[in-house]
Design a protein that fits this description.
Layout (H helix, E strand, L loop, with lengths): L3 E10 L7 E11 L4 E5 L6 H8 L7 E6 L2 E2 L6 H7 E4 L12 H11 L4 H15 L14 H13 L5 E5 L7 H16 L3 E6 L10 E6 L2 E6 L1 H6 L1 H6 L6 H11 L11 H10 L2
Parallel strand pairs: 3-8, 3-9, 6-7, 7-8
Antiparallel strand pairs: 1-2, 1-4, 4-5, 9-10
The protein binds adenosine-5'-diphosphate and magnesium ion.
Adenosine-5'-diphosphate binds next to strand 2 and helix 1.
């Protein structure tokens, strides 16, 4: 059994007298331990709804979600599930509550009731991971967007979840902040964390293990980045665009250049182009 499994999951929002909105339809999906999967889709395609199903913040209207073998609809297990799957959201300002960085990072481990020496060790380790040791006494609201998002990540990391779900963590950041956060996520990945990475930037999925494309609440495509980038029509249908390098390779092949299609980075494009001479 995979670490996280969604079986025939649908989710419908029902609020007051409003007509019901079905945000997800018949989703089957699994995440193995240690994997980094990307979920991509345009606005309103159901990404945030899906994120909240991964750790039991929402329960499916139909179908089932399990985490480490526990069913998220089982209310007795919800605490265990939340400890296994942490969440980082789009807007760091909505996630930070403390007045000092180290207090913010200690918040989660304190809630787990850990002894204070353990909490301190975990805070040190988490701040080192995100590269913010020098900012431990700083006020979070004085930090840049990228730094704030790294504080939020440190706070989650300090609770030692097996998996972290990121819901468009770079959407509100400048290019610099985006780079810092992506580098931090790659670090978590190399530490063996399972990563679910939600985005609408195609560029960001290039080095994930697997990509899932959502459109209007349905999974329309799943595969490695290379496999997904071959499905140009489906990508266009979903209102998404190929990342720069795969797009260039596609255009160059169309123009008659004998390039292989497994080219994802500028370096490998340059190398293959030089070989043509
Ligand atoms: P995404 O994160 O991809 O933008 P969401 O999961 O936020 O998509 O939304 C999916 C669909 O569900 C959209 O049609 C959205 O309008 C609807 N939706 C989201 N939240 C609510 C809510 N609280 N009540 C009713 N409909 C909602
Ligand atoms: Mg969203």
């Amino acid at each position: 059994m995979a670490f996280i499994e969604l079986k025939d999951v649908s989710y419908t929002y029902i609020e007051g007298d409003e007509p019901p909105v079905t945000a997800l339809k018949n989703i089957n999906l699994s995440v193995e331990k240690g994997e980094m999967i990307a979920i991509i889709g345009p606005n309103g395609s159901g990404k945030s709804t899906l994120a909240k199903l991964f750790n039991g913040l929402f329960q499916p209207t139909e179908g089932s979600v399990s985490v480490g073998g526990l069913n998220t609809s089982d209310q007795d297990k919800i605490w265990d599930i939340r400890q296994q799957v942490g969440m980082v959201f789009q807007n760091p300002d909505n996630q930070l509550i403390a007045t000092m960085v180290e207090e913010e990072v200690a918040f989660g481990p304190e809630n787990l009731g850990l002894p204070s020496a353990t909490i301190k060790a975990r805070v040190d380790e988490a701040l080192a991971l995100v590269g913010l040791e020098e900012f431990r006494q700083a006020a979070p609201h004085h930090l840049s967007g990228g730094q704030k998002q790294r504080v939020a990540i440190a706070g989650i990391f300090a609770m030692r979840p097996d998996c972290i779900v990121f819901d468009e963590p770079t959407a509100m950041l400048d290019p610099m902040g985006r780079k810092e956060v992506m580098a931090t996520i790659q670090k978590l990945r190399s530490e063996g964390k399972t990563i679910v990475y939600i985005t609408h930037f195609m560029e960001e999925v290039v080095d994930c293990d697997r990509v899932i494309i959502l459109k209007e609440g349905e999974k329309i495509l799943e595969g490695t980045p290379l496999e997904v980038f071959q499905a140009r029509e489906l990508i266009k249908d979903a209102d998404l665009e190929l990342p720069e390098v795969p797009y260039l390779v596609y255009r160059l092949r169309e123009a008659g250049l004998q390039l292989p299609d497994e080219i994802l980075t500028p370096e490998s494009l340059v190398e293959k182009l030089c070989l043509l001479n």
